[in-house]
Amino acid sequence: MSQYITETLRLGRALFAAAVLILAAGCASSLSARVTTYQQWPGITVGDTYKFEAPAGKGATLEYQTFEDMVRAAIGRTGLAEAQPGATPRFIVSFDYGNPVTQTWVQQYADPYPYMYGGFGPAFGPWGYYRGWGGGVFYSPPVQTVPVQVFKNTLTVTIRDNQQGGAEVYRSTAVNVSNSENLTMVMPYLAQAVFDGFPGNNGQVREITYDLPR
Q: Which one of 47, 175, 197, 204 has the largest count of C-beta atoms within 10 Å of its C-beta?
């Protein structure tokens, strides 16, 4: 129980620090993640142990170790405890992450300047607002679809059960889409999201939103 409290406090500190960074960067007051979960969880496992297993050549990096601490802070809600060095754990926890750039399409109003200075004449103001005698009529600029680049901040956590021959019993992926490269800032929230409602329903897809501290 004391380890769970420690991990909860650690997660709280990580989330608060991430929220401060996100707000300082001028982002919104909430953060959303789409979570997809697959599980065949083996019943009551409270008190069973786990250890992390890093991909080859990746676990030695400071970035990976930082993200491992964030996952460790969030995993407490599973009821598992991290195995002591040299002990044989029941579960093996691994994770992968990334923030590839992708293109999406968004709708926005067209540039207002053509409406201010061309086509309507001097009697029309910004966005085609007619300023003649007797009032005015508003002509809004047309909506156009434009391509934009976004970052897909992604975390996938996998848990395998040694008592079932190393079979995969839990896999959850959290994805947050952002217009800025901020994987480190959102990682504590992604880590929390993959264990939200643990173990959840097999094949479940959810949208989870966290309010950021103001």
A: 175
